[in-house]
Amino acid sequence: MVFALKTPLYSVELQRKEGETILYVNYLGAPLTPSIADSADVMSRAIESLTENPEVSRIIFVQQRNYNYPFEQVILLTEIAQLYTFLLQQERILAPDKLSLFADVEFAPRELSYLLTLLRQDPASCYLELTKRISSYKRNVQESANHLDNYLRTLDRFKELLKNTKLISSLIDVIETYSIGDRSIYSSIFRPNILPNFTFTRLVAQLPEKAELVDQYEVEVESERVIVTILNVPGDAKYLYHIMPPEYTLTEDHHLLLNLGKNVLLQHQPKSEEFTDPEKVRSLFFNVARDLISELSQNKKISLNYRDLNRLSKILVRQTIGFGLIEVLLFDENLQDIFLNAPIAQNPVFVRHAKYGDCVTNILPSYEDADSWAAKLRLQSGRPLDEANPILDTDLFFGKVRARVAAIQRPLSPNGIAYAIRRHRDDPWTLPLFINNKMINSFTAGLISFIIDGNRTILIAGTRSSGKTSLLGSAMLEVIPSIRTIVIEDTLELPVDSLRKLGYNIQRMKVRSALLDSTTEIEAAEGIRTSLRLGDSALIVGEVRSAEAKALYEAMRVGALANVVAGTIHGASPYGVFDRVVNDLGVPVTSFKATDIIIVANPIRTPDGLHYKKRVTQIAEVRKNWTKDPNEEKGFVDLLRYNVEKDELEPTEDLMNGDSEIIKAIAGTVKGWAGNWDAVWDNIILRGKIKQEIVDTAKKLNMPHLMESKFNAMSNDAFHKISEKVTQELGLPVSERVFPEWKNWLSQQVRKV
Question: What is the CATH number of the domain that holds 357?
Answer without folding.
Answer: 3.30.450.380
